[in-house]
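ligand=zinc ion
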Amino acid sequence: MPYRNTPKLIFPINDIRISSEFGDHNFYDGEDWGIHLGVDIDARADVKIFSIGKGTVVYSKLHPGEISKIGIFRNWGGIVIIAHRDPIQKKNFYSLYGHLGKRFVKRGDRVEMGELIGEVGKSMTESNGLWENEHLHFAIYEGPYHSKVLPGYYNAEKENTELEYWKDPFIFIKNYNSQISQRREGLK
Ligand SMILES: [Zn+2]
């Protein structure tokens, strides 16, 4: 399926306060989670999340996490993945939004840049994946996509993904927009 070209990209959230950077090596509950493949942006429950570009929703599900006798298994909560196409590089890429309390889009939906796709989930609920801090995990993926959920962390032992498939989202957006404005200048 050819994905839809997006002429430009925006940020997925209005107020950007980063609590964990792309590439950070993070530990939770004494456990090594590995290398962070996106950015965490602090935001209260119900803060609105927008599609960064024109695209097609390829994944929208709840991964609730679990509380058991052995402990808390944190997860994505609500997660949405949107496929986009870069008309200059002629390449597909994916934007990923995790810990959404509400999801307003489903698989197969076409979305516009800036379209409301969800809201941040409430602390320690299934919809935020049982995390204490209310936040959006936002990531950009350029690897092959097989209609499955993608990881939030790179773990060399689990061989769950390749680091080179993931980009620092804010640098990616900046470069994307400047590449496209340069191309437009060139065509004038
Ligand atoms: Zn994260």
